Amino acid sequence: MDPIKTFSIRSMLGASLPPHYPETPPNFEDVSLNSSVPLPEIYSTLCDEDIALFNQIRRFRGPWLLSHSSDHDHVIVTASNKFVSDMGYSESELIGENCKKLQSSHVDFNKESNAKLSAAFKANTDVHVVLLNFKGDGRPFGNSLSILMLRNKSNEVVYHLGVIKIVAPPLPPSAA
């Protein structure tokens, strides 16, 4: 019997896409116009490996967001248009806000996942969690969230890239 293979979040999200996938959107047309840091400025600081990874993630055309690694409040500095539309908030309600806004008043429900996120931020390691989040209209959803530590040319973590996959909302521990 073959042992179960494990893959890093980084290798899974950075895997080569089939040729029928569209290229990375040109001119940053997939990025929120309300970004507090322009994407070209972000790209100018990243190492080549993380530029390639970020471009690959942008090819998926899915929801993602970015925050400064030095900002312990994890304020969203830029995000994909898909993130904004999927979350059901206006751009101005998301860009410049803490990501925990999506947890509403249910932060306690996500206590374990939030602890895992905090530990990963302190250790500068990529992490994956599933959170109970809420759209702008109050509807719950599961947020399968992968956070990737993006590094500069000196190998220092400079940004946290959150890649989101919407899944069924997690059940409370008593219902699982």
From TrEMBL:
User: What's an example GO cellular component term for this entry?
Assistant: nucleus
Report if keyword Flavoprotein is assigned.
Answer: yes
Q: Which InterPro entries match?
A: PAS, PAS-like_dom_sf
Q: Keyword set for this entry?
A: Chromophore, Flavoprotein, FMN
User: Any keyword Flavoprotein?
Assistant: yes
User: One Pfam match, by short name?
Assistant: PAS_9
Sequence ranges assigned to domain PAS in this UniProt record: 70-164
> Could you tell me which PANTHER family the record lists for this protein?
PROTEIN TWIN LOV 1
In Swiss-Prot or TrEMBL terms, this protein is called: PAS domain-containing protein
Organism of provenance? Triparma retinervis
